[in-house]
Amino acid sequence: MGLSYKTIFLNTERTKSFAVKYWANGFIDGISLLNADEVAQHRGHLEKAEHVLGHSLHYVNKVHTVLRSAYELATSPALVDQVEEILGNDILLYNVTYIIKEPGSPKFVSFHQDLTYWGFDGTEQVSAWLALSPATPESGCMRMIPGSHQQGLKEQVIGEDKDNVLNLSQTIEDVNDDDIVFSTLRPGEFSLHHGWTIHSSGPNRSTDRRIGLNIQYISPQLKQTKSDSDSAMLIRGNDPFGHFIDDVPATEWLLEDAEALLKERTKAYKAISGTPNS
Ligand SMILES: O=C(O)CCC(=O)C(=O)O
């Protein structure tokens, strides 16, 4: 059965207002992706993998290449459809990382812009953040500065703070507290933000783990200026440029050599993004 005129009209309107809001604010949140059972299943996969590996998967890079659940979430058609509204038809999946704050953890993320140290020669990039537990002001959800992506790249001071999740503790210091908007997400909802949107997150004062799956998508025309051997995975459309080595999706729920691969991939990622630009 074809779509009715009304459905097509409503879908078009929704899409239009989605993109308009994203470009006006530099982020959009509260988009529903998973129901409660699906959240429990995917959280279960993550926590079983952590049990098997014997450590938290917090801030471990390219996890979609070893854990099938992370790959499935990052390539969910309903999520990638929204990314396509922003990036266009050709999409590479660059990185997938769980960002986990344990209950009562003082870990925080300072105000920063994602594109600062990634080494890309353009801004055709979008980050998704999918909640696998409640993301609230109490649990340390993201705090956004609406419209800040329009200010371009700001000065970020490199520091060393053991509680700062960011590799270089990079911080934008002149943020006005009155401009902060909390990006509260229910489990199963996601947000999308632009690489220049200034954002941060506070400590987890709740009694549950705060678990977000952070997913970075880029356009194939982007070039990596800090390395000749960076990698990404084509997940929609075509890549006529070939600027990135191909990442391969996890074929099993958890690859047998996951630990060694994650170490190698996190080291490679940190060598690019965890170093200041020259
Ligand atoms: O998970 C967080 O607390 C911060 C995430 C973040 O900075 C990002 O997704 O760019």
Written overview of the protein:
The N and C termini lie far apart (57 Å). The chain has a single domain (22-273), classed as q2cbj1_9rhob like domain (Jelly Rolls, Sandwich). Helices cover 26% and strands 22% of the residues. It has five helices and eleven strands; from the N terminus they run H-E-H-H-H-E-E-E-E-E-E-E-E-E-E-H. The chain has 278 residues and is α+β, with helices and mostly antiparallel strands. It has helices at residues 5-25, 36-53, 68-74, 77-87, 258-273; strands spanning 27-32, 91-101, 109-112, 125-131, 142-144, 181-183, 189-194, 199-201, 210-218, 231-236, 245-246. It is globular, with a radius of gyration of 18 Å. The chain has a seven-stranded mixed β-sheet with strand order 1-7-4-9-2-10-11. Residues 1-11 have low confidence and may be disordered. The chain binds 2-oxoglutaric acid. 2-oxoglutaric acid (AKG) binds next to strand 4, strand 8 and strand 9. 2-oxoglutaric acid is lined by residues 99, 109, 114, 127, 129, 140, 142, 199, 201, 212, 214.
Brief account:
This protein is α+β, with helices and mostly antiparallel strands and 278 residues long. It has 5 helices and 11 strands. 2-oxoglutaric acid binds at residues 99, 109, 114, 127, 129, 140, 142, 199, 201, 212, 214.
What strand order characterises the main sheet?
Answer: 1-7-4-9-2-10-11
The CATH H-level superfamily is q2cbj1_9rhob like domain
The tally of structural domains comes to 1
Structural class: alpha+beta
How large is the radius of gyration? 18 Å
The CATH class designation is Mainly Beta
Roughly what fraction of the amino acids lie in strands? 15-25%
Return the CATH architecture. Answer: Sandwich
The largest pleated sheet is described as: 7 strands, mixed
Fraction in helix: 25-40%
Mean pLDDT: 93
**What's the SSE pattern?**
HEHHHEEEEEEEEEEH
Basic shape: globular
Count of alpha/pi helices: 5
Ligand set: 2-oxoglutaric acid
What is the total tally of β strands? 11
Spans with pLDDT under 50 lasting ≥5 residues? 1-11
Here the CATH topology equals Jelly Rolls
N-end to C-end Cα span: 57 Å
